[in-house]
C-alpha cells in the first residue's frame, strides 16, 4: 500500500473504532462523535470539550437529520480538518 492509501485506511479504521460502540455499527451517535473529536481532533478543533461546540458540529454533519453521522457525513469533517491542517502548515 502507498503512504496515502495507508492514511485513508487509517481514517476508515478510526471511524469504525468509534462507530461500533453504540447503536448501528456503521454510524456515529452524538456520544461516539464526541469521543472521536475529543480524542482524535483535540488539537485541531478549538473548544472541543464545550457541549455547544459538539452539538453544532453534530448538527452540521448530520445532513439527513437522522441523529446519526454515517461515513459519508463523516467525510465532511475529515475534509474540514484536512483543510485546517493544510492551512496550519503554511502558517508556520
Summarize the structure.
Helix content is 65%, strand content 4%. It has 92 residues and is mainly alpha-helical. The chain has a two-stranded antiparallel ribbon.
What structural class do helix, strand and pairing data support?
mainly alpha
Distance N to C terminus: 30 Å
Gyration radius, to the nearest Å? Answer: 13 Å
**What is the count of distinct domains?**
1
Q: Write the H/E string, N to C.
A: HEHHEH
| Chain-averaged pLDDT | 92
Largest beta-sheet characterization: 2 strands, antiparallel
Strand order of the largest sheet: 1-2
Kindly state the percentage of residues in helix: 55-70%
Which structural traits does this protein have?
mainly alpha; Recoverin, domain 1; two-stranded antiparallel ribbon; 2 strands; 65% helix
Description:
Pfam families: S_100. InterPro entries: EF-hand-dom_pair, EF_hand_dom, S100/CaBP7/8-like_CS, S100_Ca-bd_sub. This is S100 calcium binding protein A12. Residues 49-84 form the EF-hand domain. One of its GO terms (molecular function) is calcium-dependent protein binding. The chain is mainly alpha-helical. The chain has one domain (1-88): EF-hand (Recoverin, domain 1, Orthogonal Bundle). Helix content is 65%, strand content 4%. It contains four helices and two strands; from the N terminus they run αβααβα. The protein has a two-stranded antiparallel sheet with strand order 1-2. Helix 1 (3-19) crosses helix 2. The protein is globular. The N and C termini lie far apart (30 Å). The relative contact order is 0.12.
Amino acid at each position: 500500500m502507498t503512504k496515502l492509501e495507508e492514511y485513508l485506511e487509517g481514517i476508515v479504521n478510526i471511524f469504525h473504532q468509534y462507530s461500533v460502540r453504540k447503536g448501528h455499527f456503521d454510524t456515529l451517535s452524538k456520544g461516539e462523535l464526541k469521543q472521536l473529536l475529543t480524542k482524535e481532533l483535540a488539537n485541531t478543533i478549538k473548544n472541543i470539550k464545550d457541549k455547544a461546540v459538539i452539538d453544532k458540529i453534530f448538527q452540521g454533519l448530520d445532513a439527513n437529520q437522522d441523529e446519526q453521522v454515517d461515513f459519508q457525513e463523516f467525510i465532511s469533517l475529515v475534509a474540514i480538518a484536512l483543510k485546517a491542517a493544510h492551512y496550519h502548515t503554511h502558517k508556520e
